[in-house]
Every structure is written in C-alpha cells, then in structure tokens.
Amino acid sequence: MRRSDSDNSAAPADAASTREKLLEAAARLFLERGYAATGVSAVLAEAGVRSGSMYYFFKSKDDLLVGVLDRYLELLRPVLIEPVEAATADPIDRVFTLLAFYRHFLVSTNCRLGCPIGNLALEISDTHEEARQKVVQNFENWCAVVAGWLVDAGERLPASCDRGALSRYVLTVMEGGQMQAKAQKRIEPYDASIAGLRDHFNRLEAEARAEKERNG
C-alpha cells in the first residue's frame, strides 16, 4: 500500500501521539501473532488510526517493524534497567532481579508470548536485514548493561572472569529459558535455567573468595 499525495501533505493532528499508538499496537500484535501473521489493517484497527496517518510515518510494514525495534532500544533503560537499579544496589542481585522481570512476564501471560526481541530474531533475521541489525543492537545494549553490573561486582568475581562473555551467557540463559517455557507452556523450564545460572554465579563467587585468600 502506497501513500497518496493527500496522505503526504501534512502531519496528522497530534502527530507524536498517533505515531506512538501505531508503535504500541504493532509491538503488541507482533508479539502476540508474529510479524508475518500481522497485517497492516490489524495494526490500524488496534491503534485506531487511519491508513493515511500510518503512511505519513512509516512507508511500509517493514519500516514499521524497524520503528518497533527502535522503540525497544529507547525503552530498554527506562522500562527495564532503571527499575532494576532502583530496586537493588547490589550488582549481582541486579542481574537476577532483571531475570525475575522476565519470569513475571512469562507467568502473567501463561508462558504464551516469550521475549519480543527473541521472537523477532527467530522470525525475521533471514529476511529483513535492517531489522536484523536492530535486533542485534538490542541484544548488544542489553549485554552491555549486564556487563557493566558485572564489572561493578569487582572482586566478587574471579579476576580471570570475562564480564562481557558472562553477560552474553546470561542473555543466552534468559532467552533459552523463555523459549523452553513458551514451548512447554509452563514456567519450570525457565526456573531451572535460572537456577543453573545462579549455581554458576555461586561457583564464580566461591572461586573469587578462594583466589582472594590465596593472595592474602
């Protein structure tokens, strides 16, 4: 569907609100139905927006997908990171508080939806290059935050511990646990994944204490 000349003429009234409604609706439907199964008409109906207004902001459904992924990039800190950092000052507790957020979402949706970024990564990475790059950036930004917390943990982790690699392991456990919980429609696979990660952290902390004792 293409924009008409009249659609191009001026921004719709309350442009910022209209664009936000479109992004919110698209994000919700992409999560619930998947990207391929969500038509533009469904997004318009969900947002309560006319097609002319949508095509003022987004030239295509693919462009809307990129907008949704940009929105996730923008919301990472205010929606996820800042509440976690406000909840606890302990850097390792922050990791597991963040993972508890994903658990809460899984339980609240009966393990039906999973991670929006992870779902899109599986669906669109081979067919939408610009969107794939946005997915990668979302993952990289997430890992960078977690790696920062692990750096803040200082001597609680062994000196040889690669904080960046460990942050990626945390991401892998989180995404894999959600995928299994979604497939089985129960929270136990996620809990088992996080329990295994907690055990790994406990072992790292024990190694760091032993290292400190050896070094006097």
Describe this entry's structure for a reader:
By secondary structure, this protein is mostly helical. The chain has 2 domains: 1-59, Arc Repressor Mutant, subunit A; 61-214, Tetracycline Repressor, domain 2. Helices cover 76% and strands 0% of the residues. It contains 10 helices and no strands. The protein has helices spanning 5-8, 15-33, 40-47, 51-57, 61-87, 91-108, 116-124, 129-152, 163-184, 188-214. The chain is elongated and about 70 Å long. The model is unreliable at 1-10 (pLDDT under 50).
Derived from helix and strand composition plus strand pairing, the structural class reads mainly alpha
Number of strands: 0
Measured as a percent range, the helix fraction is over 70%
Report the order of strands and helices: HHHHHHHHHH
Uncertain spans: 1-10
Q: Could you tell me the radius of gyration in angstroms?
A: 21 Å
